[in-house]
## 1
Amino acid sequence: LCASGMRAETARYSVPEEAERGSFVANMAKDLGLTGEELLARQARLVPEGEKQYFQLNQHTGDLVVREQMDREELCGQSEPCLLRFEMLLESPLQSFRAEVRLTDINDHAPVFLNKEIVLKIPESAVPQTRFLLESAHDPDVGNNSLQHYSISSNEYFHVYTQRRNDGGRYAELVLDRALDREQQAEVAFSITAVDGGTPPRSGTALIRVVVLDINDNIPVFTRSVYKVSVAENSSQDTLVVVVSARDLDAGTNGEIAYSLFQNSEENLQTFEINPETGQIRLKKPLDYEEKKIYEIDVQATDGGGLSTHCKVEVQVKDVNDNAPEVIITSLTSTLSEAAPASTVVALFNVRDRDSGDNGRTTCELAGHQPFRITLLAADAYALVTSETLDREQVEEYNLTVRARDEGSPALSASKTLLVRLLDVNDNAPTFTQAVYTMVMSENEPAGRSIGQLSATDPDAGENARVRYALVPSPTGTLAAASFVSVDAESGTVRSLRPLDYEKVRAFEVTVCAADGGSPALSAQAVLRVVVRDENDNAPVLLHPPPDSSAAGELVPRWAPSGYLVAKVVAVDADAGQNAWLSYELAKATEPGLFRIGLHSGEVRTARAVTERDAARHKLIVLVRDRGQPSRSATATIAVALVDGFSDAFHQLGHDPASGEQPQVAEEQMLTTYLIASLCCVSSLFLLSVLGLTTNALCKTRVRAELPPPSPSCYADGDLASNGVGSMGTLSPAYRYEMCLTSGSGRSEFRCLRPVLASPHGHAE
């Protein structure tokens, strides 16, 4: 879209520099064939090529006007033409038009001389037509507005000639018309004017002073043609080397002598300097005997008239012990096997001292106690060799310092540090950080979860120290513990392979192996013991009453006191620890205040003494809960019957406990009926009792005459247990019942007399 909206043509306009703000440049709408409404609707705007916007577009008229005054010399300097480029962007559709405005020069600058007074020194011996170059004036304008020609004021000795350079610039040459005579006129003064080509033209003026120099007919003469001196190389900067001297027979300025270093090398000019008035030659920097042993300096003496003469200075540099020995390594084995034998060559090096004589003689030694030594091969040539066996695990690398010392006074020394790294040999097996690793994993933990990490280290390096972990296969016939966990070969992370049941597997051991990557590989073993942590994944299981029975029946005599043991709920939990700690509570009871249960024992006891007003049948729901998180529970249902004897107990147990629950109102209504019936029966019962006693006495007399004497047989605890009476219930031994039967009894029922209660003095009868 952008490419289709671009136009290759470039609109070109021009505007003079320094144009006022708002000055009209062109009507771009007309040039582009657009109306003001189109410019406004399509949001026409200008995008400059540079950072600053010098033009502004009127969207209503399409006029391009000056936004800010422009100085051509500031924007373009001497470059011509001076172009300011921009783009006009239109939207809907997107179009771009390129344009450039040429900034035309105006004559707003006059030529300017850098110095308002120009001084020329010309000897009176100068011949006519000699040309002298003058300082040029500067005009920042271009074209015709720039500097065009020079002129001078009227005088009898000179005229000016304007010359043109290749770049178009103009400069002035002063031409001598006739010979100068210092005795007639010692100085000539006139003005020079530089004029540009603007309309109107601008100009700049400067004053020229020509000083006529006297003729010098005597040259200076040095006291010696060659000066020879010696300087120690450790002489400091600004040390005096020598003083040269010359004299001139002329008087005045022609007899004044100035000294200088003439046609010397760059090295001489950087090393020596001379005082132009006194002729003292001093050092600009210290000398170095090893770099240069002798210097030759040419000195020139010039008088005030420009005549000069020369002499030579020879500087001999004296050697001092200012250079320390230099250790030059010619061959270095930076890596060395730790199994290298003694006398293995590690490095070859030379020792050099740039001084001479005793200052240049050297000795070499190895600093510190190291398993290396230095052997002399030839003059100033040495070898560094091993002196004993090496062990990389003790020292991985050696920084060997070779120290060289000369025999100067004072002696100087230098040292060179060599870094020798030992290459590893697989001579160390991996070592576990622990002989036995104990890790804990939760039962039912999903496969793939990390339960710990093994760690073994190998003091070797590289592949020899790369430890890989693996499980050692279990012997045949043992628990396949390797199927429970896996070990990451690289990191040693132990992960579970499948969920485990604490109730089946509480702990297991497996052997792990750590082997390095050497050749041959070395290895070590450790024991991994994994302990399975119990989770509360088993609910309590009821042993008594059995969970498959709808309700367990229990008998409680009406005379039971508070704390009487009714039943005992027995439950177990397959979990361990806190998850297997069970607590018992009554979740629901027909009469909540009559019974209570032991929190931890599960024993159901009466909370108070049983009364006649208590209902004959009760239903208890016991909640058994463990202490896991979250806790699990089970419930047991116990049916309790309040009885006066065992016959009544059978009758009570033969009915549904729920059917015996009658409203209190019905009992009150029947109470009156019972009382009336009782009054009617009292008289009859009295008569029947008297008749029964009489009949009973007569019957006993006849039976005793016919049968042997009665021998009652009482069944002890053992007998009851053997018949299943004492062992099947939930009553404790302290609450077993005593029952006696006569051998001659013809009745098939037995009577409950009383419980055998424990007492400090023994069992009751």
Note: The chain is about 10% helix and 40% strand.
## 2
Amino acid sequence: FKGGDTCEYLLSSGRFLGEKVWQPHSCMMHKYKNNEAKNCLIDKHIVFIGDSRIRQLFYSFVKLINPQVKEEGNKHGNIPFEDKSASIKVDFLWYPEVNGSMRQHIKSWTEGSVAKPHIIVAGAATWSIKIHNGSNEALAQYKINITSIAPLLEKLARSSDVYWVLQDPVYEDMLSESRKMITNEKIDAYNEAAIRILNSSSRNSKAKVKVFSVSKLIAQETIMKSADGLHLPESSRDTNAMILMNVYCNKIMKPIDGSCCQPQPPLTLIQKLAFCFFTLSIIGYLIISLIHRNNYRKNKSCTDLESGEEKKPAISTPNVSTLEMLLHSFCKLGLIMTYFYLCDRANLFMKENKFYTHSSFFIPIVYVLVLGVFYTENTKETKVLNREQTDEWKGWMQLVILIYHISGASTFLPVYMHIRVLVAAYLFQTGYGHFSYFWVKGDFCVYRVCQVLFRLNFLVVVLCIVMDRPYQFYYFVPLVTVWFMIIYATLAIWPQIVQKKANGNCLWHFGLLLKLICLLTCIYFLSYSQGAFEKIFSFWPLSKCFELNGNVYEWWFRWKLDRYVVFHGMLFAFIYLALQKHQMISEGKGDPLFSNRVSNVVLFISIVCFLTYSIWASSCKNKTECNELHPSVSVVQILAFVLIRNIPGYVRSVYSSFFAWFGKISLELFICQYHIWLAADTKGILVLIPGYPMFNVLVSTFIFVCVAHEISQITNDLAQIVVPKDNSTLLKRLLCIAGFFSGLLLFSAMQDQSRH
């Protein structure tokens, strides 16, 4: 940890990811759109003062505000630009040399008669080298001139942002005869003089002229693509302009994926209370542990002084009380949450932008799949979608989704469409699993509901508090929670129809189908009535859970994207259990699911459907159009996979214990990745070890998986304590939980009021 301001890294260091993507050292750059640039620079006056290279930077900067601007007009004169809609003024002032004229203009800004610009970008040197044929006298005069200008720039830097742009290297082989005297050796000498003088001037001053040296690094990689050997290609100029925009605007706009130049967010009231709670839990656990240890030592076996025989203690091992288990769990959770906060809220660890290449996605996929096949074992049972098989399914899907996120593969549409199917498959399992449980067991008690809701939501609620994020931010958990409640309501509402009741009278099967048709009708209505959907979830306190950025549109979009797949999972479970009950399928070890002929036909159709969907998804050209079709067609590939996985008896009888292990903690992996594997709320990558990308991924992945596993254990332990089976105790706990959330809503309202 070098400390300091990430702005210094942004202005001075970085590297290229690929050909055109610039990655600053230690932080992430946001790609500003026109409307964002206008909102940041509203009522601002920006001045670029210098030579033709500064003029190029001026045009690239202006195009971030208005892309329609053309590079025309007097090249060796002043160029004004104004955006009246946002009251933005950007001026280019032609001063190709650092001389008395430039000094006089800068001095006028320090005097009260002329309004100071909010941002000043200055730089020049190549004209001095060219006009004076690279003489040493010209360099000496340049030092004198910049020495006289430095105090004026320092004075301006007290109230404005002042940047001095160092000279980029040239491509000497491409320079015209009139520019042959502009050598990289001369440019380095001028840059050294500027750095030394500006740094010495600001050494004892709080206000500091920021040296824009990163342009040199960019130019070293791209100057050979220059048209004349002197001026940078357009992509490099655009990168420099975007860096300038990030330096100034990130602290104002606070974009999630722009960590450069962003100060650490202040702790909220809720975060402070959470910190106090975890601290007290750690202290409490240490005190109880010490007391138990002392008691254990006192009860240790000792020698009887009269008989000389050894007595056995009354207590052989210390009993772990509920309070101690509770404090132990919160103690571990507190330490883990500290790591979460340090990774993604404190400016302690570095963050980098994602950069997608086919190899960064497909090579890890192949490696993980080979590893999963290597750990093949026999299943304990051979039923369709048995527990080991569903854990395996969740596991490999989760690993693929993790690789998808860290590689930035969402930019590649065919991969995006296949990942959408994996997310839909999770929801399919939600429909299948919960429907099967309620239909077979007929258990609609409050204990079951509370257990499921606690296990799904515990980690997310803690992260909402510690990381100061809304519940909807972790969109998948609200999605599975709401669908679980929909499944429960569908089956629990009168008349309660379960398998035991339906076996006595076949008419109950039609009653259940009628319920499912009503559910499908409601889903269809809400998916095409955004207004009705938003009204339902805009009521307080539901709005506090499902709003993101002040509205519930994101929630509606996420829900709509996979709106039918849970219903498909419920329907599949109903049909499968009916076939199983009437012994129309064979689930013996090694036996095909149907007769040999039927199995072969269904297997062939499933493979064709699976491949057909993949071909369609790979040929997608428009994400919006494909997303519209996805809810209706994703079930094709999901059902095809289920049948391919279960029809052959030998395939159904084995599973990958490697994938199944990850499947048991898939929910924790999905949520934890937001902050301790990825960074900046999934927009970037966490960097624990800079300079060694592969080693960094190995270390951060190891910690990330261990933390997810530990949180899974903590959640299971706390679920037994917080959600007891005894109804009277459970009612008391529910009242305490209601009080906790009421307090949370109150503190949240206080926070919102203080922010406004």
Note: The chain has three domains: 6-253, 349-723, 727-755.
## 3
Amino acid sequence: MAEDTTVPKLNFGYWLDKAIEWGQATTLESQKDVCLHLPQLREFLHQLYETVKHSGSTVAIQQFPLIGQLLGRLCWNPFVIGYDESQKTLMWCLCCLYSSEPQNAVELKANSWIRSLLCHLLSSSKWESNEAETSTFISALGYTSADYYCHLVKNMVVSLVTELRENQFSGLNILGSISASRVNAVSIFCVPLITLPDLTPLLETLLLYHGGSSKEILSSEFLEAVNEAFLKKKISLSESAVFSLWLRHLPSLEKATLHLLDQLFSIHWNSLEEVACVMKDSLLPQAASHPAIFRIVNEIFKNALMETDGTSGVMTVIQVFTQLFLQAHQNENKQHKFPLKAYFPCHHQPLVRGLVRRPFELPTTYRSQHLKHISDMLKALVEDANVSSLTDLFEIWFLVACFGEWLDIAAEQLLKDAVEPDAVLWLLAFYYCPKNENQQRTQTMAEAQAVYNHLMMLFSCTDLSLKDLEAAVHRITGIEQCWNQCLTTHLLTNFLLFSPGGHRIAQECIYHITKTTDMSKVYNLLIRTAYRFNHNGEEDQRTVKLLNELLQKLTLKV
């Protein structure tokens, strides 16, 4: 046996030779030699882990082709795994070799071998007998080795869950409490096994565990892996566990929000019910009941809107999300409900309270009054001398835009009910043209007023032709300013839907509009209207039928 225990750093071949020489340390001589080298071996394993932890399983094996043989031999040496933190470091190294998405039979077989070694290491403190005795014991229980490991994992999960929960509820018992480092280690050990169904109770317990530390005690690798598996539908978690994951790990929340946006814009929507279904399935609207989550998600949506130059599709997604968030917030138990100011801390609170009132919660006769109230508050804010920067103006505009249902109601109420048109037109003009540089909003307001007056003269006519609407259509197709075009399109589309004579010429008129304008804007306006009709059920079937026909025609073109 070698007497000199000074070994070059990361001398892989040396330690592999030693592992082969030691075997399972069954002789007195080999046991003595193992004990002599344990401190250096511990240091070597730590250095090995630091070398391979960021490289991935494929690169690690390319760098150390015999790493599996070395770790496998050391895992069955009772003197090695019983020394200090060597057992834990061996687990860490094994986790680095685990393929989270195995590509072939070799990687699948390697994953199975790693799982069996992890189970062995986790149970080694309770099984001090040799392999033959353990095998005899397994057979006596009537299990195969595969059954044994399966039951061992289940028992291990139950044991750890019980321990963590008891510690959570008896946090004041300092002597009996679990150390943060141990909880962190458990989370690391879970990383390669996250998609195992039997591990779900432990994952949820860890996510809901906080202990007494002010710092995050779960490893970031664990939190990232759980989030990734959840987003890819490889695991199913309770809502409370998912919410806790996003609250304690901001990158996971950001990734979940961007994943939702990618999902929504990788498919064509036939209805906003589809959008709402995808959103609810993501759990983000429900999680947004917590103000911290809502504010972060809202900020990501805001950035997405700015990066896409205010695309109508992104705005529609934000509006649907806001509606789902309001539903979740209203369903919260009153004892656990946060005040609105927690979600919109920097905004004028009377305006926030006005916007969060859902239109269907109010009698139809009161909606016009409520719209005027919103418009008056908004106008006072915008014209306030303190709102001088474009940033302040954008924040006010974005708040109003999130509650776009009120804007659609405003355009509808203008034509259907007795309202004060100036206040409602100003609200719409602000939405489509928030800046008033060079009198842009004033110009938009004048254009909208002219279109509105023209449409109101025709509203009661039952026998209309496209020529009667020629002036309004020309304002859409002939003007260059996007904001004027969008507002006029909004008013004219509602006229076609709600006027007695509009139904007959609706398809022809929409065809002329979409020849020269962005078709997606009309499409998004129509699917928002359909979504509102389906949820509120206030419109006559003739209007609903026309709306569905228009959507079917546009769906083929968008």
Note: The chain has a mean pLDDT of 82.
## 4
Amino acid sequence: GQVPLQSPQHVEVHVVNTNFTLSWSHPGKEPGVTFSAEYQGPDGGGTAWQWLPGCHNVSGTRCDFSLAISEFYDSHWLRVRAQRAGHVSPWSHTVHMVPAHEAQIGPPGLELQPTNGDIKIKISPPEANQDKKMWLDDLSFKYNLVYWENSSDSQLRSKSVFPVDTVDGLAPDTTYCFRVQANLPAEAKEGQFSPTCCVRTTRKVNELLCATNLRVLGLNMDFHLHWDSQYKQPVSYSVQYLIGYLKRLNDDHSGKWLEVPGCGNVTGGRCRVSPVLTTTGFYYLRVLARGQGHQCCLSAEVKVDPLKTNEIGPPGVKLDISDTLLHVQISPPGGPGNELMRDNYVLSYRILYWKNSSNDEEEAKVKELKQTIGTIAGLEPRTLYCVKVQAVSEAYNKSSAYSQQECTQTPAEKSFPLVILATFTVALVAVLLLVVPLVFVLYQAYSKIKYVFFPSCQPPLNIEGFGGQLCPSPYLSTPEEPIENCSIIESMVTYEGNQVDFKDYKHSKQSSRDSGNYSNDDNTSGSKDSAEMLQKEII
């Protein structure tokens, strides 16, 4: 009988971009053996096994099933078996696959163009012009260019490039070969290299006219571009800039360079470029040189990251002394009106202070500050101290030069117990001088008020009913006293042996005379008439 068919072995899945290939091996060499594969979709055990399109009844040990996969982030399962003349082998072991995890980055496209001694490159991303893509964001690719001189003893050189870029510094009339790969650092994936392309460089025209050695110097966000020139004839320079993110795009940015304001016709070797370096990110600068007879030459580009290129200047320092405390006030580098420095750098300050004495070789001490105002304590009296300050940016690993040193002398030592005693004595005397007269005035006022409104003497009980006031106040006006008219009869009348004594009337008259309130000489006749009438009534 026939030997039973063996299962396929070493089943593997290969994914490049959206191209899927299934491969395996088979120990049998019998003719007429074919192979078929099945797969399960993302639902796993919830779906039945299906024939894998492109991998049914194939005679080789490889098949392409790219059309069968459309979900790149879901799980898939695959298996293969052999078959011959109605006989089938057992299924191979099942292979699990998540397309996006298995996929490799395919080779990008590469175009080369020699330009005035340099090579201009243009890279097209993997899966360019494809509707079905594994990599959705073309701008996330980072390109690594490898190139070498096409000679027997050349060495490989590599550099990170943008989709449209220029390779300079090449020898003229020399053939160079290039290849490039696309990488995704965020996913730790390195792509396949493109096929090798070679091109021959040309000679640079007007090479002596070109500006060379471009460099940007910045202090407190004020930037200047410097360059060198070997040209001996009259020449003018124009500085151009390109916003950095434009180079990340796949489009050609050669027409998007702009002239820096104020740097359109420069005859020297520097120009201020701060007007265009106003935001975070990065920029590119280059210099176009123009000579006589319409000659021109475009320099190499220089990349500028303002916050990294900028140098921090020294801060300002102001000192104020009080007893043994030294107050340090710091002005931020660039001044308080420098908004770019204030908005982009978080600065701390390092204070260096020491005794400025020829007899004292004490080392300088350091105090760190997060704010612009600090105090140094524990200083000796009548001693000259000097201070200088440095600004530090931890985020950018930058530090300024130290400021110019400022010096001040602490005052002489004071005897604090004597000062306290003298202060207390002066305060006590001042309080006494103020309080004693005030107490005297208040007491006098109190006595007068009490004497006027609350006198100490009271009227006798026998005249309380009159409501009179026997102790008139010298400060109150005395009302006019009313005068009562009285008549007094001095007679002794006897009626039927009973004697009537008018002594009481006489006593009343005498009392009235004594008081001066009950006598009246003008009314004597009236009194007599009254007495006669009384006697008649008695009779």
Note: The chain has four domains: 9-102, 109-201, 211-310, 312-410.
